[in-house]
Amino acid sequence: MRERERPMSSQPFGIRLRAAMNQRGPLCVGIDPHQHLLDQWGLPDTAEGLASFTYGVVDALAEHVAVFKPQSAFFERFGSAGIAVLEQATIRLRDAGALVIIDAKRGDIGSTMAGYAAAYLAEKGPLACDALTVSPYLGFGSLQPAIDEARAAGAGLFVLALTSNPEGPQFQSARTTAGPTVAGAVLDGLRELNADAEDLGSFGAVVGATIKSTGEDLDIRGPLLAPGLGAQGGTAAGLTEVFGTAVRNVVPSSSREILAAGPGATALQDAAARSNDAFRTVLGY
Ligand SMILES: O=C(O)c1cc(=O)[nH]c(=O)n1[C@@H]1O[C@H](COP(=O)(O)O)[C@@H](O)[C@H]1O
């Protein structure tokens, strides 16, 4: 069967992502159950508190928002009980038609990367999600097993390129021996992976909404995950300055700003809808 004729569930990630953003708006809600948010929601700092918080977000938003990005760190904090919540939340979100990017920023030598790929990207993996954040600092080529598994499963990757934290440029703006910056080399690698994509490829970059203009070419024919909105100071209006003509491919991600509206489901839905509307206008959805 040709790619375009396949049912949506078995389409490559980039195609599913564009369809979901067209349908529900571009907002990605980050699920970052910080200790202070559990406290603010009146929940204990335990695995049970984590579960109530996470399923509260899932129940309120799974049918309204296109993309979710659970932050693995805050689930790992509670060991296997926390990982079980991440697993369940991922299943429930996907069952409700949302896409899940697990933010685990994995990166290792190729043979170990294959283990992460089996956990997060393989169709029957225990934490199977739609896309995974990965780190390229062991060399872009070290990501190959994850790239292969993503292609086989119709999943995607988001590779760190220009991160939102102030320390990022120390490495990311440094020049490689071949000439481009480290970030530029990552973007070049992604452009190559997406070369055959008609609209949006499955291999994306992480580019912080806070980075201002860098002179890097962000047109990689793939999605640009933009965290740093809200709590870190990035705004919807500022996205055009950072992304220029590539702004249409941005997946704007916001965690604390939306989560702080909880625990009420209606308040969470209102916060997500407001945010989604602002991004729709800027990104042209
Ligand atoms: O990969 C990420 O999502 C990420 C990359 C980056 O450059 N900056 C960044 O903040 N993030 C993540 O995005 C989320 C931001 O959360 P808020 O600042 O609360 O919206 C956190 O889970 C971060 O780990």
TrEMBL record:
One Pfam family of this chain: OMPdecase
SUPFAM superfamilies: Ribulose-phoshate binding barrel
Gene Ontology biological process: 'de novo' pyrimidine nucleobase biosynthetic process; 'de novo' UMP biosynthetic process
Pathway note: Pyrimidine metabolism; UMP biosynthesis via de novo pathway; UMP from orotate: step 2/2
UniProt keyword annotations, A-Z: Decarboxylase, Lyase, Pyrimidine biosynthesis
Keyword Lyase recorded: yes
Segments crossing the lipid bilayer: none
Top-level taxon of the source organism: Bacteria
Single Gene Ontology MF annotation: orotidine-5'-phosphate decarboxylase activity
Catalytic activity: orotidine 5'-phosphate + H(+) = UMP + CO2
Domain Orotidine 5'-phosphate decarboxylase: 26-271
Enzyme Commission numbers on file: 4.1.1.23
Residues annotated as the enzyme's active site: 105
Lyase listed as a keyword: yes
PROSITE patterns tied to this protein: OMPDECASE (PS00156)
Family in the record: Belongs to the OMP decarboxylase family. Type 2 subfamily.
Name of the protein this chain belongs to: Orotidine 5'-phosphate decarboxylase
Organism: Kribbella voronezhensis
